[in-house]
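--- STAGE predict ---
source: upstream dedup step, 1 unique chain passed
mode: sequence only
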Amino acid sequence: MYFFKIIFIFFFVTLSYADTTEIKSTQTFDDLLANSSIYIDNSKNLTLNEVKKLEFKQNDKVLLSYGYSPNFNVWIKFTIKNTTNKSIHKIIEYDSALTTNVNFYNIKDNTQFEDGFLTISKDRKTINPIFKIELKANESKTFYIKASSYVTTLIIKLNLWAEDEFYQNEFKHQLILGLFFGAMMILAFYNLFIYFFTKDIAYLFYVLYLLGIVIHHTLYTGIISVYILDEKGISYILKVASVFTLIPVLGLALFSKNFIQIKQYPIFNKILNTFLILVPVYLIIFLSTDSLNTYRNIFTMLFLLFLIIVTIYSAYKRNRQSYFILFGWIVILIGSLLMYFSSVGLLNTYSYYPYLVEISFVLEAVIFSIALADKINYLQYEKEEVHKKLLTQQENEKQRLEIKVKEKTADLEIALKEKGLLLKELNHRVKNNMQTILSLIRLQNDDIEDEKLQNVILTIQNRISAMSHLHELLYKEEDKISNVNAYEYFDLLVKEINFSYTNDINIIYNIKTDLEIQQAVYCGLILNELITNSFKYAFPEGKGNINITLDKVDNTYILEIQDDGIGYKGERSSSSLGLILVDTLVKQQLKGKILIQSNQGVKVNIMWRNHEEN
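--- STAGE serialize ---
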């Protein structure tokens, strides 16, 4: 009987201290949850006094996760005993920033505090809710915590800290989070500037993705409730939490669509476009009702799953850019799965790797940035390759064209030679025909006794001879057929005229330019008329000088014929056929001007512009 009494006393003592945490003098940290007991309030109406009378279930886990749990409250009961001989101050940390409401009850001191994601105290600057306690020497106190979360997952983890160690750890924690957000924003601004320079829309979508990650993680870590928004703002943010979950997914989808060029896979492109069209529908449905909150992430998860499938398929198709995206997916999926396992209580990842999620996000962002940089390098490489091919093609085309040009040039040279021969033959035939005409006129002239009529026939001969000499020169020309040697042409004309008269006239030439064929015809006729007049009328004694000048200044030709004869006596006859012919040729054919002066001889100045050069 005595034995059973001992067993009973031992069992009672064990139960009494099963949820007691003893504090030693050197202890700076302890897990409270493993030495606590739990009660689930499915009615969500029990008060503290009612809960005290109920039986709690002993817990031995350091972390409890209930997932999305809006329909019950979790009560945690634990006792802390100070085993030292001095008064101590401790901090109880509720190590989950996203729990909606956390109520702390100190039974012995009859005090209570309320904190949580939606009820954060104004003077709190810590990420997680904390409660400060004081234990006197060898004193024990029993505490209750009521936790509930109707928006986010319900995760419970309790830490007992010495004050100094807690604030040191909190400073380190916030510093690391600050470095994470700083790194993400730097990457966002960096890619935004690249977008402004390159105008590649993929960079803008990637910036949207990074900003979505930053916004989502401020919610996930609790930073937004501590430093950014008040209780009203947090309440509103939680109502539209699906939007902030979807922003990075939407940015990633648009980024992948552009970066991987999903258009080249028509079926996947149509499905992706369908998802993008359904995004606003999804937002309208889940923002307008609370009845579907349990399924609020299904659309996002399906969207992500589809993007992973597309990335794997494009990698299978050896899409270079998809390799980077796939590697980034692997990194972020590992981090996300570990975060999910931790949130549902399957794996306490944070105890071993507290910043694994942040590291995976940063690493994934760096990988995507490297992918974008590689895209630029690859496009530059493709550009250089295309440029090399273009240069090679241009060189080949140049050689081909050179061969063609040589062939065409040879053909043209042959054609030109044939044309030249034909033109020479044509000029030769024209010249022969004119010579035949001249011979006939001379034969006819021999039978005419009227001196006046003989002079008329002689004038006609000289005019025909002027045109005949031009064709004779063209026939003799070996290379040029567009221009005529003016000196040689004028000399032939004057000699022909001089041969017709017995005067001893000295001809002085000052020829500085050649003439085009058509101009040479008109100038030959003009010169023939003016020189004939000089031979006939300017020198009664049969001696004198005639100066013939031809020059070109800029685009203007100047032809000047001057003799030192007796000049005109009185007014010159305007009815002279020769002078009428000269005036007509100058004004209508050459489009020029003529000036005749008679002062110690006759000076005729003719000017015209070469209109073909205008």
